[in-house]
Each structure stands twice: as C-alpha cells, then as structure tokens.
TrEMBL record:
The lineage of its organism: Bacteria, Bacillati, Actinomycetota, Actinomycetes, Kitasatosporales. One of its GO terms (biological process) is phenylacetate catabolic process. Coiled coil: none annotated. It comes from Streptomyces lucensis JCM 4490. This is Phenylacetate-CoA oxygenase subunit PaaA. InterPro entries: Aromatic_CoA_ox/epox, Ferritin-like, Ferritin-like_SF, PaaA, PaaA_PaaC. GO terms for molecular function: phenylacetyl-CoA 1,2-epoxidase activity. SUPFAM superfamilies: Ferritin-like. GO terms for cellular component: cytosol. Residues 1-22 are annotated as: Disordered.
C-alpha cells in the first residue's frame, strides 16, 4: 500500500493544484500524512487554511527576528569590552539570518518576501510583543539572552517537529543558534550578578522588567488562543501556549537561583501536587495593548524598520541587477534562493 506521502503527491498537477473533483481524496491523504507524523512538503497538496496559518505564523516569526535585532543593536556601540561587542554583533547577525531562513520557508508556500515585508510595514502582520520594550541598560542584553532567547527556544524546539517540512528544518538550525544566544545572556547576567553591588542591582532591575513580557511571548492563555486548537490538530504547534509557558517558568526558577537573582513574582512557588511552579497572574491587558500598537516602543520599532527598508533599496536594486547580469551564465543560479531548498 502506498504511503500517505506517495498518495498525496501522486497525480498532483505541476502547479500543485489538484483536480477539484479529487479534493476529498487529497484531503484524506493530507490528514493521513499528518496523523502518521509525515512531513508536508511544498509541492504537496494542502488545505488553503493550513497554508494560510503557516504563512501567518512563519511571517510573524520572521518579522520578530528582524525587528528583534533593534533592541540589542542599540547596545553594540556601548558594549563594555571588545569581547562583548564581538559576541553581541554575532548574535544580532544571527537574528538576521533567522529572518532569512524563515522568509525563505514562507516563500515555499507561495508568498514572497516583498509581500510579507509590505504587510509588516503597513501593520497588517504582527511581530512578537516582546520587542516593543526598551533596552535601558547593558544588563538588558543579558536579560534578553537569558529570558527572551530562553522563551524562544522553549517555544521553538517543538516547532522542529512541525508538520510542514521547510519550517521544521529551518527551526533546527535556529534552535541551535538560539541556544548559544541563551547561554551568552546567562553568562553576561552571571558576571553582573557577581560583580559590584551596582552591577548586581542593574542585573536584577533588567530581570524585573523582562520577566513578565517574556511570559507573554507564549501568546494568550489557552482559552483565548484562537488558533491553537486547529494548529495543534495540524501538528504545526505541538503544545499549547500555557503548556510552554509553564515549561519555561519551571526551567527559569532554578536558573535564577544559580544566577543569584530573584524573579519578580511573589506568588511563584513549587506546587508539589502539580509537579510545577505556580505563578502569579499575567497582565493580559498590557499584552493586548502592546499588540494594538500601544507598547512603549511600537512606533519606534516600526519606523526604524521602514527606514532601514527604504535606505536598503539600493542594495536590493544592486543585487537584482547583479543576478540579472549573471542569469544564464555558467551555473545559472543568479536568481536561485534557499526558498526551494529550505
Ligand atoms: N506577540 O491564537 P494565538 C525570538 C497573536 S522569535 C504578538 O495563540 P498562535 C527570537 C497571534 O499572532 C519570537 N502577537 O496564536 C529572538 C494571534 O493574532 P493573529 C517570535 C502574538 O499563532 C530573540 C493572536 O495573538 N516567535 O524571540 C503573540 O496560535 C531575541 C492570538 O494568539 C515566534 O513567532 C505575541 N507574543 O500562537 C530574536 C514563534 N502571541 O495572528 C531577537 C512561532 C500571540 O490572528 C532577539 N510562533 N499573538 O492576528 C508561535 O509559536 C505562535 O505563533 C505563538 C502564538 C505561540 C507566538
């Protein structure tokens, strides 16, 4: 008997569009592939809503990576040593790379990067709430690495098993790099925590400010998460927002102790019965306000992104001219992108 993968690609048209009369059969093959934990690949038939959900999530993720460069880039020129500066530059560059892998993954779904960037710039697509908070001191670089990258890894490791192949494969590399980022943040905070009383206080202040927004990164509570149930059925998401948030809290508590820092939540305590830490209520009003554009830095972030895009127009034009010049030359890969191979 043919595998689900063979069934859903067999007979598909070159443009990926099935004969309308056969849609039910394709749907069955798609469902079977998802149930069997097989990967859906770009040329496979997939429901329109599955494609749209992936584009939405991958685009939002890609936008987060590139907008996420801004808060830390703010500190590159003020890093306290050459070593710290080199590490921070590498990290910020990695985030740009993550954006590229993710835009490429979205391209495999038939949505170009220009279109996605246009939607970001016009406010029709979101980026993570976390990047609308300011980086006030050098310790914020450590707190972002430890908490924001830590939250990102907790959320993204399960995405390495996402049912859509290009997204899942992009996540493997991203998670490896994020784990380096998390370690550098932890190490930076440890140095400050063990430093002078002023440095310790600076580290504590940064953790106090980044803790709650980091918990919000996982998205709204499960009963308010409009996409979770369907995304989990499709195995795009493997865990709910609240499950991952809880996992993150449980990971952070012992790490905070090792750092010699406290988490700003008086209700945080181990619950023997649940086998997890209980934690205090999250201010969801703040979260929704940030999503509506009313966070401390929303305007600054999007304006900076638009400006960078406009100022980079000449680079895109030069790259396109170069590619056009080399199209048809030996190798003929002038316009090839990672999109088809992501
Ligand atoms: N911020 O129904 P759900 C990083 C929106 S990468 C803004 O639960 P879903 C690396 C959601 O889109 C960080 N919006 O949605 C780094 C939806 O609105 P929509 C980004 C949010 O998709 C580190 C509505 O709320 N990571 O940090 C947020 O099932 C350091 C209802 O929510 C990813 O994108 C939020 N936090 O679950 C870079 C990971 N949460 O779209 C630089 C992939 C929810 O209908 C420096 N994404 N919303 O208008 C995911 O796993 C999911 O999309 C969730 C949300 C879990 C974020």
């Amino acid at each position: 008997m043919a595998t689900a993968a063979a069934q859903r690609t067999a007979g598909s048209e070159a443009d990926g569009a099935p004969d309308p009369v056969d849609t039910t059969a394709y749907q069955h093959a798609f469902d079977a592939a998802v149930a069997a934990d097989e990967r859906i690949e770009p040329r496979d038939w997939m429901p329109d809503a599955y494609r749209a959900t992936l584009v939405r999530q991958i685009a939002q993720h890609a936008h987060s990576e590139i907008i996420g460069m801004q808060p830390e880039a703010n500190w590159i020129t003020r890093a306290p040593s050459l070593r710290r500066k080199a590490i921070l530059m590498a990290k910020v560059q990695d985030e740009a790379g993550h954006g590229l892998y993710l835009y490429s993954a979205a391209e495999t779904l038939g949505t170009g990067r220009d279109e996605l960037l246009d939607k970001l710039h016009s406010g029709r697509q979101k980026y993570s709430s976390i990047f609308n908070y300011p980086t006030l001191t050098w310790a914020d670089v450590g707190a972002i690495g430890w908490l924001v990258d830590g939250a990102a890894i907790t959320n993204q490791v399960p995405l390495c098993r996402c049912s859509y192949g290009p997204y899942a494969r992009a996540m493997v590399r991203i998670c490896k790099e994020e784990s380096f980022h998390q370690r550098q943040g932890y190490e930076l905070l440890l140095a400050l925590s063990k430093g002078t009383p002023e440095q310790h206080a600076m580290a504590q202040d940064a953790v106090n400010r980044w803790w709650w927004p980091s918990l919000m990164m996982f998205g709204p509570p499960d009963d308010e998460s409009q996409h979770s149930a369907q995304s989990m059925t499709w195995k795009i998401k493997r865990h709910s927002n609240d499950e991952l948030r809880q996992r993150f809290v449980d990971i952070c508590v012992p790490q905070a102790e090792s750092l010699g820092l406290t988490l700003p939540d008086p209700e945080l305590r181990w619950n023997e019965e649940r086998g997890h830490h209980d934690f205090g209520p999250i201010d969801w009003t703040e979260f929704w306000e940030v999503l509506k554009g009313n966070g401390p830095c929303n305007e600054q972030r999007i304006n900076q992104r638009r400006r960078a895009h406009d100022e980079g127009a000449w680079v895109r034009e030069a790259a396109a001219a170069y590619a056009a010049k080399h199209t048809g030359s030996a190798g003929g890969t002038g316009h090839e992108t990672g999109a088809t191979r992501a």
